[in-house]
Specification:
- With 1011 residues, the protein is an alpha+beta fold.
- Among the domains are: 173 residues, no CATH class; 183 residues, no CATH class; 99 residues, Cytochrome Bc1 Complex, Chain D, domain 2 (Orthogonal Bundle).
- Helix content is 15%, strand content 24%.
- It has 18 helices and 42 strands.
- The strands form 11 sheets. The protein has a 6-stranded antiparallel beta sheet, covered by helices on one side. It has a 5-stranded mixed beta sheet with strand order 10-11-12-13-17, with no helix packed on it.
- Strand 38 and strand 39 form a beta hairpin.
- Helix 9 runs parallel beside helix 11 and helix 10 runs parallel beside helix 12.
- The protein starts with 68 loop residues before the first strand and ends in a 12-residue tail after the last helix.
Length: 1011
């Protein structure tokens, strides 16, 4: 877990089911000065209730049984700014709280408490010359004998030197109000600060202080400094020291039974090691057992039982999965985690206590832990038979950062920045009313008629300024609030709006009338506010259009006969996917405040009311009694959205509004996108973090970047929104390309001030640029010249992207359009052919393997080596770019015949293709170089000397770097061979390619090999 400083915002105590890698919070400062605010909505303004009360609702509860536990706000009168730990002060009835930015508070254990007592602000101890550098507190604990000695311990990072993590002992006065005793800090132990610092402190049943440390690195590359398996440093470990009996010359002693006292060079403080970022751990006060939640890298979150000398495996393993075999294993065997979570379940696990209180007897002996991202809380324990029991207690929308079991038996949960408040875990008292939840749309009370569709009294229509792309469907929207309650919209992006319980936001999707077919209802989506939680549901319309049925939580997909989208005509068979509830939550997440449409910046368009005094839609909704009255967003406000397809609006506003509506729910500061760049409208262009490359994929584009000013054809944003399949963005919620959106974004990127290097289609005078000119619909180029131009553009990904952009923008003649689709869809390279699939009927598209490849599907087919040879020598397979058949000097990796010798069995060979990083020979291990300027280079090591390092890059170029210019040189756990190389092939094509590669025969064994 990497904590970043974030603003506190207001929220009601609530619960929400967990999402897949979703619950994230916006990171931004207040956008506006006082004179330029978003609507400040005042509850005291009397407004006429123009709408009737909505009294017909039958939407309450959930269609599934409630969770066995719940959380409720424990101390409503106190909140904190990005708190990081909570601990009880022994025998005093008070709590101690730390905040990330350096403040330490105490407060009384009283539900009515409203006062916080500031004990200390550690920032005041930082020298003036270091004040601009951050100081961060990660954890604290209080000495068991506090009433006798007043000691407490804090783990924090200090900006001294290059930055250090330190554990210090402080002393407080022993009477309230508690104050820090001046000059009482004693630094106990330090280690280098880095991305992963650990920072949890706990006293064990043996009286010793246990400390967690991280591996000192950020996300990538994993454990770059190789610290976690190296017991000669303190990092990536659980430390154990005796603070009550300091040794001579030291502020602590080493317990005599620590495991590595006899190992030369090992740090004797280490109790266990092999951890990435053990943010919090718990100690069973009955058995002394220790359980730690370790934050994972890309795939797994892990729960370990910590034992003396135990090796938890990082980075050789991530959870149970092999990761870095190049790292030297520590002195003890690796112990697998006792529980692991894939990143579809958890993203940043937070350890809690082993519960031994009386308040929640059902949890006796359970290690309780949660997840910072999803908000889920689990319990884990060993039963009488020795088997592990694991269960989910509750899904919340909290940003869980710490737990605490108080002496009273209450179990508290600390929220980081959703509210910065403390919650209590309690058994659920919610009755199971799931049987009463409406299974048909006609039963919801939202509509008085379904055919024609007419809302019930009190259900009010609204429109949004910049709607999301809906794969060609059209949306109608309503808001339904029980009785005459009103919504209080937030005046900024830091705080959530306030919605009455059982508010329902409705989005109804129709397929538009065309080809002589009437409009067809597809689905009706609901976002239901219940018990402080937003729950998404969808109703799928029956074929006769008479009613709609509740879709199961896992979603559904069906094939429909729908009118073709222009310029095609007639009916087409196409699949219509209704998202699973967790898919919905990928966008409707905490970081985007759950509600995406019914927010001020989307509602602030001119209303459709005929009342000349109604003004904007916000004013009309206020007059109708839907929202509390407020002012419109000023036109110059940075979050002001416009209709992306209103040609009278500035191009930048249109494109940025489009990207905000379709992408910013994930791509915002602190968001859950894998590639961290931002597309929120209020951010300036230079704040988007988008003018950079990415390791996710370049798709055959030289020097590709997320956004290249002036060059849409090197811009990955445009490529990925133009493609179907595994590389498509957005990867959820859409399965068709938005032609108008592609054309708009391409036009905007072109308008930006260009740099020096432009791809061929954007470079005047280049063959690709001339080819585009030849395809001008108003030009007079001959038919052969036009076909030649299309062929020229289809030789490269940038060229194909420029051609597909013309297609989406309707800038080709009908004949050129047909020719471009025919030739483009037949391109041998999947990176190119995938761009044209949008224009091919679904029934005629190739069933490509995509990212989720089942090897048994390929192995069940008989391959044809002759067909496979054609694939090998095409651009689609890419094998030949790095692997020559039998010439090592022309191969970046082993030759194909060498691979055949090592993996003669068909399944083994295929496994190496699908999982190239599974097993890598030392000579083919990639080296990662970080230069003193912060540049990163990757390649195979060709040569190194005291003066220089020579790499061979993936492009087979030699790169020579002077030693003086190198800051770090490490071995990468990842193969240079990219994953998903077969993703654009069909299963039969993959089987054919495999047959050809194996037909090449095996190379003879090396001359020095033994029989």
């Amino acid at each position: 877990m990497q904590i970043r400083i974030m603003q506190t915002r207001t929220m009601q105590s609530s619960i929400i089911p967990a999402a897949t890698r979703v619950a994230v919070i916006l990171l931004l400062a207040n956008l506006l000065a006082a004179e330029r605010t978003t609507p400040q909505l005042r509850g005291a303004d009397p407004v006429p209730h123009a709408r009737p009360a909505w009294t017909t609702s039958r939407i309450t509860g959930t269609p599934s049984p409630p969770a066995p536990y719940r959380v409720e706000l424990a101390f409503a009168g106190v909140r904190f700014k990005t708190p990081t730990s909570i601990t009880e002060i022994p025998a005093t009835g008070g709590f101690l709280i730390t905040e990330l930015e350096g403040c330490i508070y105490t407060f009384a254990n009283n539900e009515d408490v409203t006062e916080r007592n500031l004990v200390a602000d550690l920032r005041q101890s930082v020298p003036q010359e270091l004040q601009e550098n951050p100081l961060s507190i990660y954890g604290a604990t209080v000495h068991p004998q506090f009433t006798r000695n007043g000691f407490f311990y804090v783990c924090y990072t200090h900006p001294a030197g290059d930055g250090q993590s330190r554990v210090s002992r402080f002393q407080m006065t022993r009477q309230e109000p508690y104050r820090l005793v001046a000059d009482s800090e004693q630094i106990l132990i330090t280690w280098p600060a880095g991305g992963h610092n650990g920072g949890c402190l706990r006293f064990g049943t043996d009286g010793h202080l246990y400390i967690s440390t991280g591996d000192g690195w950020g996300p990538n590359p994993p454990d770059f400094k190789k610290t976690a398996q190296d017991v000669t440093n303190l990092m990536g470990a659980i430390l154990r020291i005796d603070v009550d009996h300091p040794a001579a010359g030291k502020p602590y002693a080493i317990p005599a039974d620590n495991p590595f006292l006899e190992l030369p060079s090992a740090r004797p403080e280490i109790w266990s090691y092999g951890l990435r970022n053990p943010w919090k751990f718990g100690i069973d006060r009955v058995t002394g057992n220790i359980f730690v939640a370790d934050n994972g890298w890309e795939t797994w979150e892990s729960i370990h039982q910590v034992v003396r000398g135990g090796n938890c495996g990082w980075p050789i393993r991530e959870g149970r999965a092999a990761l870095r075999s190049d790292v030297q294993q520590g002195p003890t065997p690796i112990r697998p985690p006792i529980k692991d979570h894939p990143h579809t379940e958890a993203n940043s696990v937070i350890g809690g206590p082993v519960y031994r209180g009386k308040t929640l007897p059902d949890l006796a002996g359970c290690f309780v832990y949660g997840d910072y991202i999803t908000g889920t809380i689990w319990a884990l324990r060993t039963n009488e038979e020795g088997a592990l029991e694991h269960r989910t207690l509750v899904d919340t929308d909290l940003r869980i950062v710490s737990f605490m079991e108080a002496s009273s038996g209450d179990l508290y949960v600390l929220d980081y920045d959703l509210t910065g408040q403390i919650y209590r875990l309690l058994p659920s008292d919610t009755p199971d009313t799931s049987a009463n939840f409406p299974r048909r749309l006609s039963e919801t009370g939202l509509f008085k008629s379904l055919k024609p569709l007419q809302p019930a009294a009190g259900v009010i229509p609204y429109t949004v300024t910049a709607g999301r792309w809906l794969d060609g469907a059209q949306a109608s929207r309503w808001v339904a609030i029980p009785n005459r309650n009103r919504i209080r919209l937030s005046g900024d992006l830091k705080t959530q709006s306030t919605y009455p319980d059982n508010t329902v936001l409705v989005k109804h999707l129709n397929w538009p009338a065309a080809a002589g077919q009437p409009a067809r209802p597809l689905e009706t989506q609901l976002l239901h506010r219940f018990g402080g939680t937003w729950n998404p549901y969808s109703y799928r319309w029956t074929a006769d259009g008479q009613d709609a049925l509740l879709v199961p939580s896992e979603g559904s997909t069906e094939t429909l006969s729908l009118a073709a989208r222009a310029p095609a005509s007639g009916l087409q068979e196409r699949s219509w996917h209704i998202g699973a509830e967790n898919e919905c939550r990928m966008c409707h997440n905490a970081g985007s405040h759950y509600v995406l449409g019914f927010v001020p910046h989307q509602l602030n368009l001119d209303g459709t009311s005929t009342d000349p005094n109604a003004g904007t839609q916000l004013a009309r909704l206020a007059t109708q009694g839907v929202i509390e009255r407020g002012a419109p967003i000023p036109a110059q406000h940075p979050l002001r959205l416009v209709d992306p397809h209103d040609g009278s609006q500035p191009l930048e506003d249109r494109a940025r509004s489009y990207l905000h509506a379709n992408c910013s729910s994930c791509h915002h500061p602190g968001g859950n996108a894998i590639v961290s760049f931002y597309l929120r409208r209020d951010l300036a262009l230079d704040q988007l973090n988008a003018f950079k490359g990415t390791g996710i994929g370049t798709f055959g584009i030289d020097d590709a970047k997320l956004l290249v000013p002036g060059d849409p054809y090197r811009s990955l944003i445009l490529y990925r929104m133009s493609k179907l399949g595994y590389a498509r963005m957005p990867y959820i919620g859409s399965r068709a390309v938005d032609s108008r959106g592609v054309a708009l974004v391409a036009q905007w990127i072109t308008s930006l001030a260009p740099g020096q290097a432009l791809a061929g289609p954007a470079k005047a005078g280049s063959p690709e640029h001339q080819a585009l000119a030849a395809l001008d619909p108003q030009g007079n180029a001959s038919a052969p010249r036009r076909q030649q131009a299309i062929n020229t553009l289809l030789t490269s990904t940038p060229g194909a992207l420029s051609l597909i952009t013309r297609l989406h923008g309707a800038q080709l003649t009908p004949a050129d359009r047909r020719q471009a689709v025919r030739l483009g869809s037949q391109a041998t390279r999947g990176d190119i052919a995938g761009l044209f699939e949008e224009f091919i009927p679904e029934s005629q598209r190739l069933a490509r393997l995509g990212q989720k490849i089942d090897p048994t599907t390929i192995l069940a087919l008989k391959g044809d080596a002759a067909r496979g040879r054609l694939i090998y020598f095409s651009d689609n397979a890419r094998c030949r770019h790095c692997h020559h058949v039998n010439k090592p000097g022309e191969s970046l990796g082993p030759t194909l015949r060498e691979i055949n010798r090592k993996y003669p069995r068909r399944g083994e060979f295929l496994q190496q293709v699908l999982q190239p990083s599974l097993k890598i020979e030392d000579k083919f291990r990639a080296r990662v170089v970080v230069t003193t300027e912060g540049r990163l280079h990757t390649g195979l090591l060709e040569h190194e000397s005291p003066r220089e390092v020579v790499l061979r890059t993936a492009e087979k170029r030699k790169l020579t770097l002077a030693r003086d210019d190198i800051d770090e040189l490490q071995t990468s756990p990842r193969s240079l061979m990219p994953e998903f190389l077969l993703s654009d092939l069909t299963a039969q094509q993959a089987a054919d390619l495999l047959a050809y590669l194996q037909s090449l025969g095996a190379a003879p064994p090396p001359s020095d090999s033994k029989p």
